[in-house]
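Why does residue order matter? Because the sequence determines the fold. Keep that principle in mind as you read this record.
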Amino acid sequence: MTSLTLPETDNPVLLLGIIASLELDTAKGFEQLLDEEFKAAGEYDWFQSIKQHRKSRGENFSYKSPTDLRFLLSEATHEDSQIWHLIPGVSQAWMNAAQNLKFKLNQFHHQQLSPDLNTLLVISTLIDTVATGPSLESAKWAKALISRTKALLSGSYVPKPQTPITNPSADIVELEQKYSEVIEARAKRPPLGSPWNGERPRRHLTLDRNTRDVYDKNGISVKAEINQRGTEVIDKWLWYFPLGGDIFVAEDGAVMGYIKGDKYMIGWLGPEPEGYSKQVRGYVLPNEYMFTGTSIIDTATGQKIHDVARHDCGELIDQLVGRVAPDTALSISDYGDLFVPIEEGDPERLATAHRGIWFPGHLPGDSSSVPSVS
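Structure:
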């Protein structure tokens, strides 16, 4: 097992290394356990055997190694699994945790989970559940991580100098690099409603709440610069900058406004970057939703979006009808991108919501006391 490294701070790069190392150690523990069981039964190339079985059924199989924990969790939860009966301590609770962990790890490997203490706590808790039954060594690390992470989050632990994980694998280095790129991009242009990073842009415009228009220093409307749906975009800005006023536009079109003296990202003048892409942007938020066929439900509260959204959300629902089957789970990123969570690969962006047409308090920079723009 990798040296039992525990976090001393919330440094994202160090947390990434810990999560990735814990995942790899758990996968190696399962591989060793299964290798011994299969060899005892005379099966020495069980990974290739499982791969051929899945492909013979026309199923997707993108895993390259038995030390990919996502492969082991996926195979263990198949109805025709060849390995679940070889894993001690498997129960319905184990299966539920394995299924959940598989989704979380897919998001982690596609840079969709925030590299923070909360993510570490969630993944450590799930790994503790799946590793404890078969008595894997990584269960001890997971339990220690749960305790340390809770102490850091509560402020009851006094940090010491952090020692990074030594000799990380190539996969971990690659994952850290990909996350670093995401972190850098977010620092430049965060989700709408989030604090602005960097200097105030030079171009100065005025957003007028009463006329639903944007003017230059000469009082001339620049709404035509936004796009053919300028009024809709301005209404979106006003959900993040409710009172209107001075706004500042960067060279790439990002728009900044002051709220109580602090700088915030409120929108884009012109098309958003990747506005027509299917890629899901940002980190996945923890809330879970379900599409009913005619509405969206917050599964934690049972609330329907039509009953709580502060703006007409009909167009958002229309974008899902015909593309998403009723009773399908939905997730949303902090950029407002809606998608169906999947076990493997990149999810497809189905629609993008802003806080005016979403559940109050669920997107960045939102609160139930935000003034209406109607």
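The chain has three domains: 12-188, 203-268, 289-357.
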